[in-house]
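[job 4471] stage=fold_predict status=RUNNING
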Amino acid sequence: MLTIGLDVGGTGARAALARDGVIIATTSTDRPTRIGAGGVDAANAVAILTPLVREFVTGGPGPIAAVAAGLTGFALLGDELRVRLPQALAEATGAPVVALCSDMLTSYAGALGLRGGAVVAAGTGAVALGSDWQGAWHRVDGWGYLLGDVGGGSWLGRAGLQAGLRAADGRPGGSPALLAALTEQYGDPAALVRDLAGRDDRAGVMAGFVPAIADAARCGDPVAAGLLTDAGTQLAQSALAALPPGAPREIAYTGNLFQAGPALWDAFTTTVTASASLREPAGSAVDGALRLAQGAASGTLPPNAPLHLTHPGS
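[job 4471] inference complete, writing structure tokens
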């Protein structure tokens, strides 16, 4: 069985071709798809992704059984793209089945496989998804940097910047080390505050302070270490909360934030393993997309799976 998996973000896409689950070819593009950035451009997404998958059918490797694509900001995708993209991918590959879903689902399937449990993804944001693989699904957080994404990079970076500003003010709980890092990285604190107020990418800017927090913690700053510990605990709590009743108590993780330092990692693992099993991630979001494509082609996906499944040729 030949399947194609796509991991599509706002700044590019990765794709893989697999035979019976084993990847035999990969390709990627860094052209911005603008998916999930508000006002999704269906024509742009089709124009970028169609030639990407067409590379795999050049030379006739055989019939493609299914294509699955995980897309950042899937909840924001309009009806036009939900219709046009499956049709375009089917026409480019000849696949009779196309599945579209959130990149959280492909991350889940990549990290944990096609089985019950929960996966927490932590990068700039933070979100967890759990399932009993019998029809129950539960998403936790992913509410965005203003009200949620607790434990994620923007949340942690903002807390570190606040600790620096507390030190500038002379308030309790401040960190002179983080104030020094803030000034070195961004300049005058007041200028940073003004700059953030007018930027659309403020979540990413705040997440960009995480390495400074990790460095301060490694140098012995207790405030920075405490922030990392809090982040790890919060991420673990989101993962545990995502487990539906009756789901296997197995949790996997994905995202660069888990490399922020031992304080975060130790808090995460300690909280998870107190009541569940922690599994190493089995693969990437592309691997997850390929697994979902196999499940879509064979009709073995679980009930109520949060994806948009189409049969464009039927």
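[job 4471] summary: The radius of gyration is 21 Å.
[job 4471] exit 0
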